[in-house]
Write a structure and sequence with these properties.
Layout lengths: L1 H17 L1 H10 L6 E2 L125 E2 L10 E5 L1 E8 L3 E9 L6 E4 L1 H7 L12 E9 L5 E8 L10 E5 L8 E6 L10 E7 L7 E13 L2 H8 L10 H12 L22 E7 L17 E7 L2 E10 L3 E8 L2 E2 L5 E2 L1 E5 L2 E5 L2 E4 L1 E2 L6 E3 L3 E10 L7 E10 L5 E15 L7 E4 L3 H6 L12 H12 L3 E2 L19 H4 L19 H11 L3 H5 L2 E2 L17 H15 L4 E6 L13 H4 L6 E4 L7 H6 L10 H7 L2 H10 L3 E5 L17 H13 L4 E4 L17 E2 L8 E2 L6 E6 L8 H6 L5 E8 H23 L3 H6 L3 E3 L2 E2 L3 H17 L2
Parallel strand pairs: 14-26, 27-28, 27-33, 29-30, 30-31, 31-32, 32-33
Antiparallel strand pairs: 1-4, 2-12, 3-6, 4-5, 5-12, 6-11, 7-10, 7-12, 8-9, 8-11, 13-15, 15-24, 16-23, 16-25, 17-18, 19-24, 20-21, 22-37, 25-26, 34-35, 36-37, 38-39
Helix pairs in contact: 1-2, 9-11, 16-18, 18-20
Length: 921
């Protein structure tokens, strides 16, 4: 940045030659990081009453009153109906420093309006920035320094249409419609003049509008198009801010007023007074297209008083986030192993001696080989869209697994011509001594157009024949189970595909190698989720709940249990009355070592009554082991302190928690999923977590709470949900705080829902499948004990297709969500063995009997396998020393947002871990 420094010096010398007096005046006011007001001819402060609608020629008017309150920062978290079947209602409102919840006053309010017919000044290029007004994001600036582009059109005014600065006499004219805020031009040693936006008092929603389009037109610059420039970055400083969430409303194309659902939120560091960036990725933002008109700066969600300020030096428009990360100097791996530890990791992995015999990849020929059909294999954690018909080159597959484990592989078929009536069969897996394993074939069911691809998620058992479409592929799963007593060693089976005439047209060998160690019955990774009784019995015929003595519910529960997932409610627990334990058949599950967690009063705050809690204690205290499995879940995602509308609160959690402790004892496990955190006092020395520390001992935040401010600054694509850097500064990073809670005997869990979003991992259908396993590698890396998921059967019901993909799309968050809350699907066969078709067809049957059963998913397979990987790492650490697993895990993921979706790398690492364990078993 030496060129910039030279130009800056030349500018100062030139100013000195023009007027010594002015230089002295400015120098006195403009020491580094010191701001002073600069009087200008048009610099009228937009303080107090101002028109909430910005018109091209207006800067003053009467206000539109806005109620005090805090706008929702992350709209949309799961809340449930009493039985757990409901879908998220999107109610998520943070609290201000006093703990008062608030509502978003911006919903539907027209402000920051611009005239859509206000065209560019003569000389513009009609909708796209000129060649001299491109973004200055190609070079990395030094701290407190931003490179000015060459060929600058305006020596005073904005640098360009995509690098907007405010060194202009009339810059304030374009900041209007303030609410509880004022704006002024102040001097800065780097930028000349900058805009300082300050609160005028305590408020739940201070904001001001910036008419970008009119500002550009005034300086003969063509306003940028949101079709090209998808990211907005603000370079700001802060002074005395009690809050650190900046919400940006955007207006582009036909949108000329700030409107609810057309905004993004970002965090800034309110413990640091230096220049920093806030990034708003609008790549998939609803309505961000066409010429950019205006922005509204909701520069804090709330303020505790006057003179809390954000100083805006630049508004940078970039084509993508990577441009901004480069500008910021980010993109580093802050959590990578040191060179010494990396060498140690490589030595460890390379020392893993292969114990499984090699298998031939030679392709087998069937008796009636069909050259129009291609057969190949792939890992279970791969996804093959149906338009991919090229073989992986894997003509066979060797599954590696421990005893007491379930593992899969895939085989894929593709045909150049349509085929019908095909069948697939698999022999038993046998070793040389006559020992056998049974494999099951599952059929992949495709969802159409998941982010432009047709991909598999439901995997029902293959029954009968199947068809192949011309030029399309079809995925199948081979699922194998071992028991604690399975003999270690190599097993083999033969896969055969036959045509409609029963002729063998494809054939392949499949192998299973069983390591000489056993996974525990009680997994070291606890997983707890809701299984809705209501959905099971209302979304299948006969469509009216009448129950079946828990038979179908037990099928679903047992299926989840086999896949390492515990449901909140045990079979035969009562959801009615004052006693949840009225049926002794529940004892079978209480005694099962695989059952590690359940809710002793069943799900729902209304079920946490003193009578039900006392009855639960009376029953469970028959055996200490039963009490150990009890996890109370009294309040879902408490938001505020005091009760407002339908939000659950921290005080409600404390009250119910104390009642439970009085009956069960202080060591009773009380879990509280938390998706919002904020300072509970003006000094940021208490937050929502510390506020409930006297009752909560199973901490369960969203995964993204473990992101640190440093990581967020390095990669603004991450979610940073601490809400204020002062909390992290005063209380420590969330990871360090949770480690202290664990040291004191508490458990730490985490959870995902539709949040977070890429690059962090959730359980969305459109993710790379290997990510869902890596989520549990990350859980081990962060030393998190358990995983919570809000619901596994949040089905969208339809008469034509019961497996409608659950697809959520909302303007309030910048991404689509596929499969949130659905890990199992509703299987159904009527009395004639036909799958569910319609109510009309079912009603025509004389025999109304049916069979309802769970259908698994690709993602549930990965959740189970991820939990089993967690067990592998736990065993590895016991055999090789604490921290050994970190050396392996960090070869593929070092933090929540830094991981590789490399299936081959994942497979090599997993096999190395298995071989390392086998070497000492």
């Amino acid at each position: 940045m030496k060129d910039y420094a030279m130009r800056n010096m030349t500018k100062k010398i030139f100013a000195l030659l023009l007027t010594v007096a002015l230089l002295i005046s400015v120098a006195a006011a403009c020491t580094d990081n010191e701001l002073k007001p600069v009087p200008t001819a048009d610099a009228a402060k937009t303080e107090g009453p101002a028109d909430a609608t910005v018109k091209p020629s207006e800067t003053e008017g009467s206000p539109e009153e806005t109620p005090e309150g805090t706008p929702a920062v992350d709209p949309g978290e799961e809340t449930k109906t009493p039985d757990g079947s409901g879908d998220p209602d999107g109610s998520e409102k943070p609290v201000d420093g006093s703990g008062n919840p608030s509502e978003d006053p911006s919903e539907g309010t027209p402000d920051a309006s611009v005239d859509p017919d206000d065209t560019a000044s003569p000389g513009s290029t009609g909708g796209q920035p000129t060649a001299t007004s491109g973004p200055a994001v190609t070079e990395k600036p030094t701290e407190n320094q931003t490179e000015k582009p060459t060929g600058q059109t305006n020596p005073k005014g904005p640098r360009s249409a995509t690098d907007v600065t405010f060194d202009a006499d009339d810059a304030l004219k374009y900041f209007t419609g303030a609410n509880a805020a004022k704006a002024e031009l102040v001097s800065d040693s780097e930028y000349g003049r900058v805009v300082k936006i300050s609160t005028t008092g305590k408020s739940g929603d201070p904001f001001i509008n910036f008419n970008y389009r009119n500002y550009m037109n005034a300086y003969k610059l063509t306003p940028a198009s949101a079709d090209t420039y998808k990211v907005v970055a603000l370079k700001i400083r802060q002074e005395k801010c009690s809050n650190s969430t900046f919400e940006l409303f955007y207006c582009a194309g036909s949108i000329t007023a700030a409107t609810g659902g057309y905004s993004r939120s970002g965090s800034f560091d309110n413990s640091d007074g230096d220049w920093q960036y806030i990034i708003f990725d609008l790549t998939t933002a609803n309505g961000f297209k066409g010429i950019i008109n205006a922005f509204r700066f909701d520069f804090m969600t709330s303020s505790v008083g006057a003179n809390e300020s954000v100083i805006v030096g630049e508004v940078i428009l970039a084509k993508n986030v990577d441009e901004v990360i480069t500008l910021m100097g980010g993109g580093k791996d802050l959590n990578a192993l040191s060179a010494a530890d990396q060498k140690k990791a490589e030595n460890l992995i390379n020392s893993a001696k292969e114990v499984a015999p090699a298998v031939s990849n030679t392709k087998l020929n069937a008796a009636n080989e069909d050259g129009e059909i291609t057969l190949w294999f792939d890992h279970a954690f791969a996804k093959t869209p149906d338009n991919v018909t090229t073989s992986t080159g894997k003509n066979t597959y060797q599954i590696r697994m421990a005893r007491n484990e379930i593992e899969d592989c895939q085989f894929i078929l593709a045909s150049t011509k349509a085929k019908s009536g095909l069948t697939a069969s698999l022999t038993e897996f046998t070793d040389g001594s006559g020992n056998k394993l049974t494999g099951e074939i599952l059929e992949g069911y495709y969802f159409d157009n998941v982010e432009g691809k047709n991909i598999v998620d439901p995997i029902p058992p293959l029954k009968g024949s199947f068809d192949l479409k011309a030029g399309k592929s079809k995925t199948f799963i081979i699922k194998v189970r071992t028991a604690a007593g399975t003999k270690a060693g190599q097993y083999s089976a033969v896969l055969t595909i036959k045509d409609s005439g029963g002729r063998e047209v494809k054939k392949a060998n499949v192998y299973v190698y069983v390591w000489n160690f056993t996974l525990p019955e009680a997994s070291s990774c606890k997983i707890l989720a809701d299984l809705s009784w209501h959905n099971i019995y209302s979304y299948n015929p006969p469509w009216l709940y009448n129950g079946d003595d828990s038979l179908t519910y037990s099928k679903y529960y047992d299926y989840l249990l086999e896949n390492k997932v515990n449901a909140y409610t045990l079979p035969y627990m009562s959801t009615e009355g004052d006693n949840p334990f009225t049926d002794s058949r529940v004892n079978k599950y209480l005694d099962d070592p695989r059952v590690q967690a359940f809710n002793p009063v069943t799900y729902g705050t209304q079920k946490v009554t003193e009578a039900r809690v006392r009855a639960a204690y009376t029953y469970l205290s028959q055996k200490p082991a039963w009490l150990e499995k009890a996890y109370f879940y009294p309040v879902d995602e408490p938001v505020a302190v005091k009760r407002v509308e339908h939000e659950h609160t921290l005080d409600e959690l404390k009250s119910l928690g104390r009642m439970i402790q009085n009956i069960f004892g202080n060591k009773t496990k009380i879990i509280a999923p938390m998706h919002i955190n904020q300072a509970m006092n003006s000094t940021s020395t208490e937050d929502a977590f510390s506020y409930v520390a006297d009752v909560v001992n199973v901490w369960c935040p969203h995964t993204y709470f473990f992101n640190t401010l440093a990581e967020y600054k390095n990669d603004p694509k991450l979610m940073f949900q601490y809400y204020t850097a002062l909390l992290e500064k005063n209380l420590g990073s969330f990871k360090s705080r949770m480690a202290k809670e664990q040291a004191g005997g508490d458990e730490v869990w985490w959870y995902v829902t539709r949040f977070p979003h890429h690059p962090e991992i959730t359980l969305s259908i459109d993710d790379h499948e290997v990510e869902h396993r890596l989520l549990f590698w990350q859980q081990k890396l962060y030393n998190v004990d358990g995983f919570l998921y809000y619901l596994v059967n949040d089905w969208n019901h339809g008469d034509v297709n019961p497996w409608n993909k659950k697809h959520e799309q909302n303007n309030s968050y910048p991404y689509n969500v596929y499969g949130n809350g659905v890990l199992v699907y509703n299987g159904f066969e009527d009395s004639e063995g036909m799958p569910y078709q319609s109510r009309d067809r079912y009603n025509e049957l004389a025999d109304k009997s049916y069979n309802a059963y769970p259908v698994g998913s690709m993602r549930l397979e990965s959740v189970r396998d991820g939990a089993e990987d967690f067990d592998y790492f736990t065993i590895l650490d016991k055999l090789y020393g604490a921290g050994t697993s970190d050396l392996v895990i960090k070869q593929i993921t070092t933090s929540l947002g830094n991981y590789k979706v490399d299936g081959e790398l994942y497979n090599r690492l997993r096999i190395a871990v298995g071989n390392l364990i086998a070497a000492k078993s």
